[in-house]
């Protein structure tokens, strides 16, 4: 049965580093850290690669979470892909550990009018 866990999060670190630019498109690497509160409680680190130009941008990222999800302590990896058509977040198969071993599912990030971030995790355990 699929469960849903919702949590607010803040960005503790956002460190972009330009790595390459050619033909008007820049590649960059961004190191990110987050803290989650709510049904998902804990922290994460993110390694993101971006590509952007005057008309488009996209990113891929892997996010390692060390969290408690609805009281189950452990962690897992989220695989991010995003471009101008939208964002996809999937739990990387086999990445769950601790009490989250075997977790699978997807997630969404919502942003409200005050720019507060919310993670909505739909998962099976």
UniProtKB/TrEMBL annotation:
<protein>
    <recommendedName>
        <fullName>DUF3224 domain-containing protein</fullName>
    </recommendedName>
</protein>
<dbReference type="Pfam" id="PF11528">
    <property type="entry name" value="DUF3224"/>
</dbReference>
<dbReference type="InterPro" id="IPR023159">
    <property type="entry name" value="SO1590-like_sf"/>
</dbReference>
<dbReference type="InterPro" id="IPR021607">
    <property type="entry name" value="DUF3224"/>
</dbReference>
């Amino acid at each position: 049965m699929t469960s849903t866990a919702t949590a607010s999060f803040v960005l503790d670190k956002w460190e972009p580093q330009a790595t390459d630019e050619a033909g008007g498109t820049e590649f960059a690497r961004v190191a990110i850290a987050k803290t989650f509160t709510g049904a998902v409680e804990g922290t994460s680190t993110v390694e993101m690669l971006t590509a952007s130009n005057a008309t488009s941008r996209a990113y891929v990222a892997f996010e390692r979470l060390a969290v408690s999800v609805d009281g189950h302590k452990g962690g897992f990896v989220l695989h991010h892909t995003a471009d101008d058509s939208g964002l996809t977040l999937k739990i990387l198969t086999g990445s769950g550990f601790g009490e989250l071993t075997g977790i699978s599912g997807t997630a969404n990030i919502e942003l409200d009018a005050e720019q507060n971030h919310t993670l909505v995790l739909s998962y099976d355990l």
